[in-house]
């Protein structure tokens, strides 16, 4: 991701429905922890997730392959370092929580990246992963974003378990919006998630994302998959 796109994201993410709902999903997961600990965000971009972690009392570190992303994260007060998801510049068993949000679909050797997530987690530590799902949704949009794959639910579980982690839950996001997004993304490769939106449209999209958190919608096919997994202790 280049510097221009990173700065575009930094400008819109506080208000944009997609980035807001991702932050809300992370905050909801953090409520599961009685005591905050140490966390690493792999593929952290501008460090937004680390700022959410800090708000919840976590000691968070950002890792990103892009020097521009590291610079931007540091400018926002985040402890950030340059590193490859497949070769994390981190000691083993150092973190209570590892995030890889919208990262693995961009990595050629996703098995290696998943193994690195497991390596840096302490025994009993938690991994939270999100990925683009379902190759039936593959379009020029994915190519424009530099993705190399989309995942089925089975493929994501196999990847995480293959790294030695125990999957606790897998759920979908983008369920209600899947038909609309599928139509738009097969028509254009434009980064519509970075395009300006009318405030009413933005709020309607956010509310749709909130509604789909309720069972059984989170079990239906969507546009993204989340997985929570634990390193055996």
Automatic annotation (TrEMBL):
Domain Methyltransferase type, by residue range, is 40-128
Q: Which UniProt keywords apply?
A: Methyltransferase, Transferase
| Gene3D superfamilies noted in UniProt | Vaccinia Virus protein VP39 (3.40.50.150)
Q: Which InterPro entries match?
A: Methyltransf_11, SAM-dependent_MTases_sf
Q: Which GO terms describe its molecular function?
A: S-adenosylmethionine-dependent methyltransferase activity
Q: Name one GO biological process term.
A: methylation
Query: What name does UniProt use for this protein?
Result: Class I SAM-dependent methyltransferase
* Organism in which the protein naturally occurs: Actinomadura chibensis
């Amino acid at each position: 991701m280049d510097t221009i796109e990173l700065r575009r994201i930094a400008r819109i993410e506080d208000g944009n429905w997609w980035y807001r709902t991702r932050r809300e999903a992370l905050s909801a997961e953090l409520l599961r922890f009685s005591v905050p600990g140490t966390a690493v965000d792999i593929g952290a971009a501008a460090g937004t997730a680390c700022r959410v972690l800090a708000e919840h009392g976590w000691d968070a570190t950002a890792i990103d392959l892009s020097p521009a992303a590291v610079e931007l994260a540091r400018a926002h007060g985040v402890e950030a370092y340059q590193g490859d998801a497949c070769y994390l510049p981190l000691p083993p068993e150092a973190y209570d929580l590892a995030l890889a949000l919208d990262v693995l679909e961009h990595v050629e050797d996703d098995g290696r990246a998943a193994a690195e997530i497991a390596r840096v987690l302490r025994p009993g530590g938690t991994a939270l992963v999100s990925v683009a799902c379902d190759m039936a949704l593959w379009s020029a949009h994915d190519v424009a974003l530099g993705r190399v794959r989309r995942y089925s639910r089975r493929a994501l579980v196999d990847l995480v378990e293959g790294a030695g982690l125990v999957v606790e839950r897998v759920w979908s996001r983008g369920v209600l919006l899947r038909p609309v997004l599928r139509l738009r993304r097969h028509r254009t490769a434009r980064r519509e998630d970075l395009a300006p939106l009318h405030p009413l449209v933005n709020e309607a999209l956010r509310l749709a994302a909130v509604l789909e958190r309720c069972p059984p919608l989170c079990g239906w096919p969507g546009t993204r998959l989340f997985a929570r997994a634990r390193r055996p202790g």
